[in-house]
Specification:
Distance between the termini: 33 Å
Strand content: 15-25%
CATH topology: Beta-lactamase
Strand order of the largest sheet: 2-1-9-8-7
Radius of gyration: 21 Å
Oligomer: single chain
Length: 283
């Protein structure tokens, strides 16, 4: 009888232990990624962290900062979404993901923003940088000034699109700071980031962030890849009144990147559900 009571008490204690107490290190396979971070935006509570201060090339996550600056300039009246932007020869010759192969004299700024956010277009990013600052070099100065202003202490940007450059660096912690500032200051941007594709000139350009198509509450944010760093993903999801940001950097491939990001988000929402149930019981 005493033995039975001991077992009962032990089972009760195990049930009462929060998931985070014993399973956090099992949420993702750390052998598959270089860094990860999961944050509940309500109060900025960190739900999971792994190597969040490890330095790594940002790849196309640099475009989040470029998008931040263009939205800021629109808000401040310096440019308009209806502006016609010139696609310069330099922009058209940009490597990697691209839309335009020749110089074009007039593309809506709003469309270029969609190309950056959805298709991760490098030529569109160069065109936007030139439109906002007059040159890529001047725009990069603005990027680093803004990064410093918002508290990204471990980052440096050498270009607006994230193509390989050994000087570039960031961390999961800094990408979280940037992503949170971007989402909170420009919440309407998620209406673009959550689009499954962008239809332009009879072509559908699919969202590189495939999680937005899987109906798992994800409504942003940005993918990235360079060989030197691996596969990156910043994903944000909202369930009820709670929003999470999950960051996976340096994954082995895009499938692993997506799966580990989903694992983080589901883990986070399970923790929130557990906390909510505990609060109801305590009340």
């Amino acid at each position: 009888m005493v033995h039975f009571k001991k077992i009962t008490v032990l089972l009760f204690l195990l049930i009462c232990i929060p998931v985070s107490s014993f399973a956090a290190d099992k949420i993702i396979d750390r052998a598959n990624v270089k860094a990860a971070l999961l944050v509940d935006l309500e109060g900025g509570k960190v739900l999971y962290r792994y190597n969040e201060h490890a330095s790594i090339q940002p790849a196309s996550l640099s475009k989040i900062l470029t998008l931040y600056l263009v939205n800021e300039d629109v808000r401040d009246g310096k440019v308009k979404y209806s502006d016609l932007v010139r696609i310069s020869t330099k922009a058209a010759k940009t490597n990697g993901s691209k839309i335009f192969h020749d110089q074009v004299n007039g593309v809506l700024l709003e469309d270029l923003i969609k190309f950056m956010a959805i298709f991760s277009s490098n030529d569109a990013t160069i065109a936007v940088a030139e439109h906002l600052a007059g040159s890529v070099e001047k725009f990069v100065v603005r990027m680093n000034e803004k990064a410093k202003e918002i508290g990204m202490k471990q980052s440096y940007f050498a270009n607006p699109h994230g193509l390989p450059d050994r000087r570039q660096r960031t961390t999961a912690q800094d990408i979280y700071i940037l992503s949170r500032q971007y989402i909170e200051r420009f919440p309407d941007s998620l209406k673009i980031h959550s689009l499954p594709y962008f239809h332009y000139n009879a072509v559908d350009y699919k969202n590189r962030n495939t999680l937005v198509q899987e109906n798992i509450d994800v409504d942003g944010l940005k993918t990235g890849y360079v060989r030197a760093a691996g596969y990156h993903l910043v994903a944000t999801a909202k369930r009820g009144d709670r929003r999470l940001i999950a960051i996976v950097l340096g994954a082995k491939n895009s499938r692993v990147r997506d799966e580990e990001t989903k694992n983080l988000l589901e883990y986070g929402f399970r923790l929130i559900d557990t906390d909510n149930r505990d609060s109801m019981i305590g009340a």
